Amino acid sequence: MTSTLFILNDAPYGHERAYNGLRLASALAGKEGQQVRLFLLADAVGCAKAGQKVPPGYYNIQLMLGKVARQGEVGLCGTCMDARGLTDTELTDGAKRSTLAQLADWTAEADKVIVF
């Protein structure tokens, strides 16, 4: 099995880096023999906020993240969450508060690390 770690740094909307990172993570997670982990840092922790409402026809980062979470693992920097006032109860299903130590472990275990 090949393990890929995706690290997202940017806010869910305003740029398309989070969108493109999630598109690639989702496509890879759907392939046999692939383990996908996603770690959200800085403003990217907003990608995991539950209850996102976007205009009709616009992509929904929460739904995209949910697909990755169902097929892999999603961790959020707890310090980054605290700095932005995001609590555990506000997270979408499958997303979990995590730590830099967890990110270090996932990085050491990964065959590939992709940063957006």
From TrEMBL:
One protein family per Pfam: DsrE
InterPro entries recorded: DsrEFH-like, Sulphur_relay_DsrE/F-like
SUPFAM superfamilies: DsrEFH-like (SSF75169)
GO cellular component, one term: cytosol
Name listed for the protein in its UniProt record: Uncharacterized protein
Source taxonomy: Bacteria, Pseudomonadati, Pseudomonadota, Betaproteobacteria, Nitrosomonadales
